[in-house]
Design a protein that fits this description.
single chain; alpha+beta; OB fold (Dihydrolipoamide Acetyltransferase, E2P); Beta-lactamase; five-stranded mixed sheet; 23 helices; 26 strands; elongated
Length: 759
């Protein structure tokens, strides 16, 4: 008698199955002609994001809603195919798009147990759903999914369907397709992963959020172990390989459990500039066509520039007062003993690269106990408390005092962990090849994620004394020479002469040394001599000369005597272009960042053809002028305000420091014949950097740190003496054992034809 209820249940299910088949047949008859075209699959073109690369092939940026890398089926590792089939559809190569036995089994289990865990969808059905259908759970949608799967199987081969699936499926973290997921989760190509990694990836399609190893490592591990068991049961894994895979440790590239860090260099400002160029040309298609933008940036140079700017800005912060806690969290009671809660607090404060957030657990004048991400407790005392000491005092402002719950920033140095702070000051660095304008490194600010304003191209700042070489070049064009003598003595001007207000300029050091040569005046950055030089040649002439020869915006350089001290507005980008004329012997080049754009197949869509010195580049300086200015700026390094650069151990360096009035902007603009580098530091809202924070103190060290890497192995190079110059002994003051070059040509010849080098 007991078998009767089970027989009734079986008969009921059998009737339902018959009705289902009949319904499917009726639906097929009406719906089949209305099914969508399979063109999207037969001519599959995945939405591949825009990617930006360095000149030497390193990825530095990716833009698009879908992070995807296309991989042909023949390049998909076999163990990954086995993992996917084991997890999603072990009868994929046997059924015709719909696994009816599996579908009926899943339906029965769901009806009997009320479970939603049994989906019964094949890989082909998932492809149909992802391309053509919504994810709503209705009978009609399921019927269309079945019909589409049958149609797909009729039109595509099994390998084509699997290829589409492997490249199209969403796997979490904005990653679409297994090739992209491998990079996202592991920082490696698919071919570099192991069986355990493949099993983890293959477990994601079922529920990318639930089995995400970053957000849910425990659930991801359980799913991974299930996939490995299925691979063993289906004969894809031998017992020893299975045992080894179950014990393998995941080495993630992202998230709080990350053990491996991807090596993408910090070039966010470069990537954004490249993105804008691609969008200007291709509009929205730029983000889906798989366009590759190849920049002129070199990976090693970019990393050197990024590190140099950040190190020196953080060093500046250490020289000035600590501003106190970044924020506060409530750690009273239970959180103090609960590492998970402390970790969750820190999730709201992302790392600023090497600057890590920490929570103060205990604070006194002699000891700071802090919790940092990863469950580490560190203690600071002695010298490590010197910088934050003011905010440990009883008199410190309550809203900034370091106490339990304070959020602070830490950085690890050779001396161990130290308190630091997110800088308010900003900076910029750009370098380029003066022979063709190719940009080799560009850092538009301290941290792109905090401030996306690109200070290299967008920050209009006063150049200070770094502008003097352009005034001196104009003077040489007028007939003066490095040996020409001017008086270094106090000056005073009325508002009519300055175009603003009464002006009594001073030398930086407050000292006046009387008559001296232009060569010495530039090396010592004597303001009084620069002003007298500008008086001698005329402000209108200097404005026209500087704008026409060096490419500055004349409207932003008013024709007043303050021009001699760099009172006009310039950008680091402009300064890099202008200094290139001194470095390359007098030619105008145009800086450029993108060398070419390619489609997903490598076909060149756009290519930059730069002007090159000695070929198409326009000569804007007489060769004698360029040579003499190079000679004078080498003196700035050899015996002037940039003498720190001698630490590089080279004789072919030249440049000029720049500090504006009240220490608002700090510059160093310098070069070697193959590389120009421009360094700037200042506040976005101009204010005093601090007494003594000059171009030589702040900006020059950035330049030195960069050039130390960029010029390694580059042989010294020097300009040859152009026709029309004589070497003469100093007529007024002793210049060491050096001789001074003077022009041996009529000055009007150079004015009429700046390209002429004939007497």
């Amino acid at each position: 008698m007991r078998t009767r209820p089970f027989l009734l249940i079986f008969l009921s299910f059998a009737c339902l199955a018959v009705l289902g088949v009949a319904s499917l047949a009726v639906a097929a008859a009406f719906a089949w002609p209305k099914l969508p075209s399979l063109e999207a699959l037969t001519d599959y073109k995945p939405r591949i994001p825009l990617r930006v690369y360095t000149a030497d092939g390193t990825l530095i940026g990716e833009f698009g809603e879908e992070r995807r890398t296309y991989i042909p089926i023949k390049e998909v590792p076999e163990p990954l195919k086995h993992a996917i089939l084991s997890a999603e559809d072990d009868r994929f190569f046997e059924h015709s798009g719909v696994d009816f036995s599996g579908l009926i089994r899943a339906t029965l289990l769901n009806l009997m147990g009320g479970s939603k865990r049994q989906g019964g969808s094949t890989i082909t059905m998932q492809v149909a759903r992802n391309f053509y259908l919504s994810r709503e759970k209705t009978i009609s949608r399921k019927l269309y999914e079945i019909l589409l799967a049958l149609k797909i199987e009729h039109s595509l081969s099994k390998d084509q369907i699997l290829e589409v699936y492997i490249n199209q499926i969403y796997l979490g973290q904005r990653a679409y397709g297994f090739a992209s997921a491998a990079q996202t989760y592991f920082g490696h190509d698919l071919s570099q992963l192991g069986v355990a990694d493949y099993a983890m990836l293959a477990g994601l399609p079922k529920a990318p959020s639930a089995y995400n190893p970053v957000a849910n490592p425990q659930r991801a591990a359980l799913r991974q172990q299930y996939v490995l068991r299925r691979m063993r049961e289906l004969g894809y894994l031998a017992e020893d390989a299975y045992q080894q895979a179950t014990k393998a440790q995941l080495k993630l590239a992202i998230g709080k459990n990350a053990l491996l860090v991807t090596s993408m260099p910090h070039a966010e400002y470069v990537a954004e500039m490249a993105r804008q160029m691609a969008f200007d040309q291709f509009k929205e298609e730029a983000y889906t066509r798989g366009i590759r933008v190849v920049t002129t940036i070199l990976k090693a140079d970019q990393e050197a520039a990024y590190g140099a700017l950040r190190r020196n800005i953080l060093a500046y912060e250490q020289r000035h007062s600590y501003r106190g806690a970044e924020d506060y969290v409530d750690i009273s009671g239970e959180p103090l003993q609960n590492e998970d809660i402390l970790g969750e607090f820190l999730d709201n404060y992302p790392d600023l690269d090497e600057m890590k957030p920490g929570i103060v657990l205990e604070a006194s004048k002699k000891l700071l106990k802090l919790y940092i991400r990863g469950g580490n407790i560190i203690e600071l005392s002695g010298e490590a408390l010197r910088f934050p000491a003011a905010m440990l005092a009883d008199s410190a402002p309550a809203q900034k005092r370091l106490r339990a719950g304070a959020i602070v920033r830490l950085i690890k140095s050779a001396k161990g962990w130290q308190i630091t702070q997110a800088p308010e000051v900003e900076g910029a660095f750009v370098s380029l090849d003066p022979r063709n304008g190719a940009v080799r490194a560009l850092v538009g600010g301290f941290d792109f994620n905090r401030n996306k304003f690109n200070h290299v191209t967008q920050a209009w700042r006063q150049a200070g004394s770094s502008f003097k070489p352009f005034v001196f070049s104009a003077a040489i064009d007028k007939g003066f020479t490095p040996g020409s003598v001017f008086d270094d003595a106090p000056l005073s001007f009325s508002s009519e002469e300055t175009g603003s207000k009464d002006w009594s300029p001073q030398n930086y050091d407050g000292k006046y040394e009387g008559p001296m040569s232009l060569r010495t005046a530039l090396a010592k950055s004597k303001n009084m001599v620069s002003i007298r030089v500008l008086q001698a040649i005329g402000t209108r002439y200097a404005q026209d000369y500087i704008a026409s020869r060096f490419g500055f915006d004349g409207a932003k350089i008013p024709p007043y005597l303050t021009m001699a001290l760099g009172a006009g507005s310039v950008t680091p980008w402009q300064m890099a272009s202008a200094y290139s004329a001194f470095a390359n012997g007098g030619y105008r080049i145009q800086p450029y960042l993108v060398s070419e754009m390619q489609d997903s197949d490598g076909k060149v869509l756009a290519k930059m053809t730069p002007v090159v010195v000695g070929e198409q580049a326009e000569r804007v300086l007489d060769p004698r002028n360029a040579f003499l200015m190079d000679l004078m700026m080498k003196d700035v390094v050899r015996r002037g305000t940039a003498a720190k650069a001698l630490s590089l151990g080279r004789s072919d360096l030249a440049g000029k420091t720049g500090t504006t009035n009240e220490y608002v902007d700090a510059w160093f603009c310098g070069y070697q014949p193959t590389l120009v580098g421009i360094s700037w530091i200042g506040f976005d809202q101009p204010k005093k950097l601090g007494s003594g924070e000059t171009g030589g103190t702040l900006a020059l060290p950035v330049w030195i740190d960069y050039m130390k890497v960029a010029l390694k192995g580059v042989p010294e190079q020097f300009m040859s003496v152009p026709t029309g110059l004589l070497r003469v002994k100093p007529s007024f003051e002793k210049e060491g054992d050096d001789l001074i070059y003077e022009e041996h040509l009529p000055t009007d010849a150079a004015a009429e034809d700046p390209g002429s080098s004939e007497p």
